[in-house]
Amino acid sequence: MGTRATDGSAGDADYGTIGASYAGYRRPDPRIAAVITKALGDSRTVLNLGAGAGSYEPADREVTAVEPSAQMRSQRPEHLPRAVDATAEQLPFADGTFDAAMTTFSVHQWRDPEAGLREMRRVTRGPVVILTCDPTLVDQFWLTDYAPEVTATEARRYPSLETLAGALGGRTRSTGVPIPLDCTDGFHEAYYGRPEKLLDAQARLACSAWSFVADEVRERFVRELASDLDSGAWDEKHGQLRTRPEYTGSLVLVVSEP
Predict the structure, then answer these.
(1) Residue 56 lies in a domain
(2) Is the pLDDT at 253 greater than 90, yes or no?
(3) 255/53: higher pLDDT
(4) Which of 16, 106, 190, 255 has the lowest CB atom count within 10 Å?
(5) Residue 235 CB neighbour total at 10 angstroms
(6) Do residues 101 and 124 lie in contact, with contact meaning Cβ atoms separated by under 8 Å?
(7) CA distance 222 to 230
(8) Three-state DSSP class for residue 64
(9) Where do the TM regions start and end (predicted)?
(10) What does the pLDDT average to over 225-230?
(11) Can you give the residue range of the structural domain that contains 63?
(12) Cα–Cα distance, 191 to 96 (Å, whole number)
């Protein structure tokens, strides 16, 4: 499984370094939350794996959160249950413990996604719900025009939909999730019509792919995007996105039934 970071981060990103402002920029969007909650069905006990600061945990269920990063666990609000310090690949639960399981923007962080997915299925009697991105669609976002290294990093890290389905087994379906224009969860595509937001260094830090690219990539991105916003070049090419109420890009919900 490799060595965990000093704060316990178990994947390829060190949230002890990049996670300090995560909760402020990655606030769950209620419309995306509703899609996840619907997929969980009538399940009462839910495992949230890679739970982070608690985004998208349903308030009306008995949730068991698992999060290896101490930095992320420290950002969980008091009204949420304390998270178990464990990794996806070695869950400390018996077979069939939970009615359902969920993970949001996390599976690409795991050292061995397929092993983690098999563990999710092992401990879950019902649906396994995964909010992730389709790596084949990531580079279609306008960010590729300015930082292709970042979208290439994302595409490399996200497991394919076929990999997810194969590891989970059972009946698996994948559905694109529309992103609202005023989305409160600051992943890249959430800013499809608000490009100025990504000039904020903290907003970029809340998207882990930026931690894998060189300083000159970040500097070039800011310089070129700021220039195109000032000159109107961005709006000439992408301005219609500013008023589009929803955007369907790479964001996808994968649901596996046993």
Answers:
(1) yes
(2) yes
(3) 255
(4) 16
(5) 14
(6) yes
(7) 12
(8) strand
(9) none
(10) 98
(11) 15-257
(12) 39
| Residue 73 lies inside a defined structural domain of this protein | yes
Could you tell me the two tokens for 55? Answer: 């985004």
Characterize the bridge pairing of strands 251-257 and 128-133.
antiparallel
Amino acid at 134: D
Residue 20, pLDDT score: 54
Separation of alpha carbons 67 and 103, rounded Å: 11
211 has pLDDT over 60: yes
- CATH at residue 200: 3.40.50.150
* Closest to 49 (Cα-Cα) out of 22, 68, 28: 68
Q: By 3-state DSSP, what share of the chain in percent is helix, strand and coil, each rounded to 5?
A: 40, 15, 40
Q: Is residue 237 part of a domain?
A: yes
**Cα–Cα distance between 95 and 143 in angstroms, integer?**
42
pLDDT at 23 over 90: no
Which residue blocks in 5-140 are alpha helix, DSSP H?
15-18, 22-25, 30-40, 70-73, 113-122
Question: Is residue 29 included in any domain, yes or no?
Answer: yes
Angle at 32 between CA 94 and CA 202, to 5 degrees: 95
CB contact at 8 A, 254 and 169: no
Tally of domains in the chain: 1
Encoded amino acid at 160, one letter: S
pLDDT recorded at residue 71: 84
Judge contact between 133 and 243, C-beta under 8 A: no
Give the confidence band of 5 by pLDDT, cuts at 50, 70, 90.
Answer: very low
Residue 16 has pLDDT above 90, yes or no: no
234/194 Cα distance (integer angstroms)? 11
C-alpha distances (whole Å) from 74 to each of 85, 109, 155, 174 are: 12, 19, 29, 32
